[in-house]
Amino acid sequence: MLVDSPYPEPPAALARPRLKYLAAYLGPGVIIASVTIGSGELVWASRSGAVFGYGMLWCFLYAGVFKAIQVYTAARHFTLCGEHPIVAWTKLPGPPLWFPLLIAVPAVLLMPIAFSAIPEILGGYMHRLFRMPLAGQDVGPWTYREFWINVWAAAFLSLCLAMALVSSYKLLERASTVVLGAIVLCVGGSVLVLGPNLIELIAGLFVPRVGDYPDWLLATPQYAGEFRGRSPWLEVSLYLGAVGGGAYDYIGYVGMIRQKRWGLAGRRTADREELDAAVSPQNPHAAENIARARQWTRAPLFDTSVSFFFVILVTLLFGIMATLVLNSAHAVPANNDLLNEQEVFLTRIHPELCWVYRTGVFLAFLGTLYGAFEGYRHTFVESVAAIVPGLATKRRQPWLRGGIVAYCFLGGLLMLWLPEGLAGDIVGRITFGTIISGAAACGLWCFAMLWTDYVRLPAPLRMSPLLRLLTLIAGIVMTLLGVQTTIAYFS
Hints:
This protein is mainly alpha-helical. It is built from 24 helices and no strands. It has helices at residues 12-15, 19-22, 28-36, 39-52, 57-81, 85-88, 98-129, 144-166, 169-194, 198-206, 215-219, 221-227, 232-242, 247-260, 272-279, 286-296, 298-329, 344-347, 354-387, 397-417, 420-423, 426-437, 439-456, 465-490. Helix 3 crosses helix 19.
């Protein structure tokens, strides 16, 4: 036991990693995965395959890989020095607090969008599932269908709030894992049976391209209104945001590591001078200190890698299945009907599997919103702690967490009850959110991590040259894609 080491002794699972022991280090990444599975895979990946076939699969692959790099670099930093990256960003050159404000303020303002759009997606599905009329007498400022979708959505959002308050996520997580696992197995089996075109699949995965909408899409009356005049780059924005969430999700994700107490995270903050002394050649324990630090970084590496691997895999499976089934049938998840078309993914195997799909949809969206309540509480507290440290004392943190839950619930409720003419439709709201806090914000995050790694950590603890290169590439690509989609949106 090193008395003067800044790092606690790593457990054997990290010092001598074995897969069965490393499973204990699946942590916050599971929350990110649960938040993504739902709107990401079931809706936007399926929409991509239905509209573009294999052509846009690269969005999901590259976004997943680059976001995994983005998240790991931040989690690694927190593990090594016990300081959340958003705190380190307060010292970036330029006006005071400019980068934390750039990331955190849009994050907080955009939270109600998720808490209105996600329940409305499920509300539209429930409306169709119970075979309620699609048209009827208007109710005040709402159309008949819009009113009843809002009723379903409000009830669902209230249920998620109740679950978040009583913290019953364990049961939901287990049930969701079983049912969603069954869905993924069925979809994966269907993909193998139907047999994708491997050449087109590989090209779609690795060759970035953004084509025009197919002629049949714009010629179909039920889709023409949504897609005519809408740049395909706005679809790219949706797909980039579908994998793993946005920058605001990752502030909270990294904050959750505090509870896992990996390395120095959740224990204490070590300043640069202490870390320099710990790894200095003059320190007789430098080699062991460096070894301990690197062993601790295996925890966020394993958590991030496994979580994003499965998120990417499931996303691609739904995109491929939509290409094989929906694209040829000219059926697209669109408007207020974003979940019904995908039921055929399972019923092609056996009609009774529709109930597996329906149960999975409900549990997936329940997990998505519950996970969002949990993650955004961390996002808000970590942001306040960095920008206004005096407000985030231990005594005030429960009030901050409660306040942001109330804000998300009431903001989501208000937004979903605003008539579409004021709040916009589901796709429009989510597109706006991904433009503001999507690819571009994630790309800038990567550049900020490169600066933070160099300034905050001594050379032996910094990223490897390969990780620095991958982080730079991720930053450049996501920033450029974000700029392009932003130009298309405001044009």
